[in-house]
Write a structure and sequence with these properties.
alpha/beta; Trna Endonuclease, Chain: A, domain 1; 9 helices; globular
């Protein structure tokens, strides 16, 4: 047995002793912000260079958009090797998608997809390089794109985030409405979220998991709806 196989067998044995399945380990890694889901130091260097370049300013709108797309691709392609395939600038019959992200065949066959069921078979990622927060109009357009592509999760990476603090008329409010009525979840990552990854405080998976859980729990009101006593009297 060579050294690499020995290391694998040791890790396999420890996993079995812990009582975790591989899927359960990934779920827990996301929930508890494990370093297992963080990109390697080499990839982090590239990520930090892109982040610093954007943060420094002085880029044209096109340059900033390109840098943001490159940074976003690293987030999903390099955080965990062989987990996602990232397709850039994909076209539908009517739209162009910045990033289409799918599970790799290896991830699907190994059952790793089950660890993050809210990602679905694939999901969209759009990068918005506006000077300010993304307004409600674009959130509506992104929701429409998700509907056309039958996507239930969309990641919007916007340096300045989106408008509002949860009012129903602003971007945050519309995101809640879409989650409530259509069960389609738009997760926004802003410069502060990206900085947490930069500082190795969190992984992109733990951030998305927390935001998805918060959005879903806030809008899932079925648990509060109880049968009314008068229902049995209605014919």
């Amino acid at each position: 047995m060579d050294l690499e196989e020995q290391r694998f067998r040791d890790a396999e044995r420890l996993l079995k002793q812990s009582g975790y399945t591989l899927t359960e380990l990934l779920i827990a890694s996301s929930r508890y912000k494990s370093t297992l889901l963080m990109m390697s130091d080499d990839d982090l260097v590239s990520y930090r260079m892109l982040y610093d370049c954007i943060a420094k300013g002085g880029l044209t709108k096109v340059e900033k958009g390109k840098k943001l797309e490159e940074l976003s691709a690293i987030l999903f392609q390099k955080s965990v090797d062989s987990l996602f395939d990232v397709y850039k600038n994909c076209r539908t019959s009517t739209n162009e998608i910045d990033l289409l992200i799918r599970w790799t065949e290896k991830a699907r066959l190994s059952g790793l997809q089950a660890a993050f069921p809210f990602f679905g078979d694939s999901f969209l990622c759009e990068c918005k390089n506006y000077g300010g927060a993304v307004k409600v109009t674009y959130v509506g357009k992104f929701s429409s794109l998700m509907l056309v592509t039958d996507s239930y999760l969309g990641i919007m990476i916007s340096w300045e985030g989106v408008t509002g603090r949860g009012k129903w008329s602003d971007s945050q409010g519309l995101i809640k409405k879409i989650a409530l009525r259509e069960k389609r979840y738009i997760i926004v990552l802003d410069k502060y979220d990206l900085k947490k990854i930069y500082d190795k405080k969190e992984s992109v998976f733990s951030i998305i998991y927390d935001k998805y859980t918060a959005l879903r729990n806030e809008t899932d009101y079925d648990q509060y709806i109880e049968k009314h006593e008068a229902e049995d009297c209605i014919v």
